[in-house]
Specification:
CATH superfamily of the largest domain: Tetracycline Repressor, domain 2
Order of helices and strands: HHHHHHHHH
CATH architecture of the largest domain: Orthogonal Bundle
Shape: elongated
Distance between the termini: 12 Å
Number of strands: 0
Number of helices: 9
Radius of gyration: 22 Å
CATH topology of the largest domain: Tetracycline Repressor, domain 2
Amino acid sequence: MPEDIIPEDGADKRTRILRSAARLFSRQGYNETSMKDIADDAGIAVGTIYLYYRNKEDLLIGIYQYSSALLLKRITDKIAGRTDPLEKYVIYLTDSIDYAYDYPDFFMIIFVDLRRKQIELPQRPAFSNFRRFLALGESLIGEGQAAGRFAASLPAAQLNLGIMAMWVGLVLTRVLEPAFRAGAEDRREIIEIVRSTVMDGIRSPSQKPFLVSRPPAKEKGTPAASEKESPRPGIFQGRRDERDEGLRPEEL
């Protein structure tokens, strides 16, 4: 179980504080945001914040812990009981992207600010859930490599970090747009780009579809139906979007 999931008896006010702080920190900057700004945005008295957090730095740590715990929980809940490493890693990727669209402010803090600080101060307790998130992706790739499902050309840790850099970069280009809207069509586009590019790239050669070259077309007339090239089969054909519509911080 990820650490720092807020208990139900404190969920309402604490999540309001965390969401408001994340929104203001990510949009106008940490130094430019006061505790009064956060209180006004959350619709509470300034003194209420200090019931939960000693100061602004403590509040930022609370955002690190909570937002990464929320991300980790939604993924571990989804992969629980599944055995196919390919299927589990698809969930790991798609649910991470879904999370970024559901909580863009938490996403910015986790994958930009927290990620940078986690590299600088890797043993800091506040980053424990993010380290678990990275370790989970690494272990899923390692599991797939051991089973012959994924290519073993790179160590699992390097491969997972490279994949993360790709999808985070794609999402950032959307989130940073002034007119960003977390629309379903935009979300599906990013997910499909990552699925088709990443998952096809990391599968071992034996796991990729075997393609038969199409015979040359006849000089005259239209090729017979049997000679037409079929769409390339893929592991994602027919898979519907499985967004976790109901997962919200106050329900955890």
